[in-house]
């Protein structure tokens, strides 16, 4: 596949990943948006390297990055960058973190790359061309029912109503006799696990575009399905997300969308994500 955007996405992820790997082997300097929402010097330096690589190749393209690079989500050619997904893992010495880069054209995902630098692992997809880990094609699992499924989840940084809702969802899933719950702390890699068939589904009640911009294409190109947690089309904005192998998607929606009334959650947390997370 010689798509130039894929080549540049890989080069940019490599540049950011080299910075992350170097910092991971040294003392990590940590700041914070909140005490549990960390940002490190590696995040900032990785984003700068990624942005520089993309701009050198495509100077007129828009770039949106988690650590301050701004762009309109309506831009006709848009790169969406998470320079270090899984910062908390990174800061605590856990190797479950990645660089995530998605390229969108008129709102549609065209290229997705997720790179784990310390493991030299690459997940990637091109629209219409399939999804891959390194050079091995990815396929979602064949589980047909929730009681055959291993489900991943994520927790947004809210420590109030959204956290409680996630915990209740986990309880409901266990009562549906799923095989188990896994929480790894890096949504881009969680989506890759769905694409690879290691997880049968993944949900989180609030994610930003840079969390899923690359992973959503990798899931769909592997044969999976994504929606918000009400079953609506996934918007390119802050949203809830449900990603599955497709076969268990409808079975998963009742517990992901019907837990609490929307108005009560909005009053408790003031977060618009609840509008697409909890009620039909």
Characterise the protein shown here.
The chain has about 280 residues and is α+β, with helices and mostly antiparallel strands. Helices cover about 35% and strands about 25% of the residues. It contains 9 helices and 14 strands. It has a 7-stranded mixed sheet with strand order 3-4-5-6-7-8-9, sandwiched between helices.
How are the SSEs placed, and which strands pair?
Blueprint: H1 4-24, E1 30-34, E2 37-40, H2 41-57, E3 62-65, E4 77-85, H3 87-91, E5 98-105, E6 108-116, E7 121-126, E8 130-133, E9 136-137, E10 150-153, H4 161-175, E11 180-182, H5 187-195, E12 201-207, H6 209-212, H7 215-221, E13 225-227, E14 239-244, H8 249-257, H9 262-269
Parallel strand pairs: 3-4, 10-11, 10-12
Antiparallel strand pairs: 1-2, 4-5, 5-6, 6-7, 7-8, 8-9, 12-14, 13-14
Helix pairs in contact: 1-2, 5-7
The residue-averaged pLDDT reads: 86
Identify low-pLDDT runs.
Answer: 258-280
Main sheet strand line-up: 3-4-5-6-7-8-9
- Helix proportion: 25-40%
What is the first-to-last residue Cα distance? 41 Å
Strand content: 25-35%
Q: SSE order in H/E notation?
A: HEEHEEHEEEEEEHEHEHHEEHH
Structural class: alpha+beta
Describe the biggest sheet?
7 strands, mixed
Rg to the nearest angstrom?
18 Å
Q: Using the alpha-carbon principal axes, give the shape.
A: globular
Q: What is the number of helices? A: 9
What are its keywords?
280 residues; alpha+beta; seven-stranded mixed beta sheet; five-stranded mixed beta sheet; 26% strand; disordered C terminus
Summary?
By secondary structure, this protein is an alpha+beta fold. The chain has nine helices and 14 strands. The chain has helices spanning 4-24, 41-57, 87-91, 161-175, 187-195, 209-212, 215-221, 249-257, 262-269; strands at 30-34, 37-40, 62-65, 77-85, 98-105, 108-116, 121-126, 130-133, 136-137, 150-153, 180-182, 201-207, 225-227, 239-244.
């Amino acid at each position: 596949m010689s798509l130039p955007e894929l080549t540049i996405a890989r080069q940019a992820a490599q540049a950011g990943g080299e910075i992350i790997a170097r910092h991971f082997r040294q003392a990590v300097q940590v700041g914070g948006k909140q005490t549990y929402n960390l940002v490190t010097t590696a995040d900032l330096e990785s984003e700068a390297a990624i942005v520089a690589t993309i701009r050198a190749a495509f100077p007129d393209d828009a770039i949106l990055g988690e650590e301050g690079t701004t762009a309109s989500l309506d831009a006709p050619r848009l790169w969406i960058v998470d320079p270090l997904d899984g910062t908390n893992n990174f800061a605590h010495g856990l190797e479950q973190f990645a660089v995530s880069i998605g390229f969108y054209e008129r709102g549609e995902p065209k290229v997705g790359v997720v790179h784990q630098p310390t493991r030299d692992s690459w997940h990637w997809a091109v629209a219409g061309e399939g999804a891959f880990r390194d050079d091995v094609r990815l396929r979602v699992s064949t589980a047909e029912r929730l009681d055959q499924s291993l489900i991943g989840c994520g927790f947004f940084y809210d420590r109030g109503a959204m956290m409680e809702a996630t915990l209740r969802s986990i309880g409901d899933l266990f009562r549906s006799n799923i095989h188990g719950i896994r929480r790894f702390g890096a949504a881009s890699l969680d989506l890759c696990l769905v694409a690879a068939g290691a997880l049968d589904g993944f949900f989180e009640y609030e994610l930003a575009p840079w969390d899923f911009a690359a992973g959503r294409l990798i899931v769909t190109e592997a044969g999976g399905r994504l929606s918000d947690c009400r079953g609506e089309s996934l918007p390119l904005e802050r949203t809830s997300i449900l990603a599955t192998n497709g076969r268990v998607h409808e079975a998963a929606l009742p517990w992901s969308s019907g837990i609490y009334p929307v108005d009560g959650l909005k009053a408790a947390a003031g977060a618009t994500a609840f509008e697409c997370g909890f009620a039909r």
